[in-house]
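The authors assume throughout that readers already know how a fold can be written as discrete tokens. The format is easy to grasp once an entry is in front of the reader. For illustration, here is how one protein appears when written out as sequence plus structure tokens:
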Amino acid sequence: MNNPLEFERPILELENKIEELEKFASDNNVNLNSEIDVLKNKVINMKENVYSKLTPWQKVKLARLQERPTTLDYIERIITDFLEFHGDRHFADDSSIVGGIGLFDNTPVTVIGHQKGKDTKENIKRNFGMPHPEGYRKALRLMKQAEKFNRPVIMFVDTPGAFCGLGAEERGQGEAIAVNLIEMSRLKTPIIVVVIGEGGSGGALALGIGDRVCMLEHSIYSVISPEGLSSILWKDASLAEKAADIMKLTAQNLFELNVIDEIIKEPLGGAHKDVDFVARNIKEYITEELVELQNKDINIILNERYDKFRKMGKWK
């Protein structure tokens, strides 16, 4: 990891010591296996203790890690014969949203998701995963195509939010998001949504209306960023950690509030530690839910989707 998180430093320091001991033992032909095993067990215990008690702010940091797997990482592992489509047929192609068609266990599907970069150069190309209106219109074009050919839609959500630049506003950012919300609510094909990193406000929700919505264990989903909330409430973005504690933005919070349907397990340390492990868990979840959804009448699916989102936020 290029920039380890503060709460991970003791673990990484111990792992480095283990590597040093292993090298010393190898170079000097000394048997230190028992000592090294003790330290490795200590690392495992430290990880279990740390990652089972992450604060909301620590989860925010983990969800934002540049090393965290992206939409294309998961597509590569669970979708075969993927063919990416480009452009919204109106203005341009927005590379912060990727989408196309492929096979999910021999079932034709449409896959769409936010795409962040792995380094600064790619992040600039991907606009740091913040879509323009044409990105949402591209997504909508692909969703309507999926409806036409009766293909289920798989969504991957990972964005700080929709891009709020002048050009995006001039081209109808709010309208593009609103249209997606309307069209997804009545799209006549099953939709499964997976939040894999950040789920930021309307920028996420514009790809987030689904029959099933799940989140990775250390992902987040909220109406605004902690920095944004603290700036509004206390006029101080440095109080973001305090804001995160009250926002109920973790997967665990949202599962308790019935906003999402399932939490998908990540390995100790986060999804970037074992992408294949997370991809298998995502695939297992989608497989199970697709079987159920594809055996339902589409009118029942639409009614259940409507009820699902109307029930959110009810206060007794």
The longest strand covers residues 191-200.
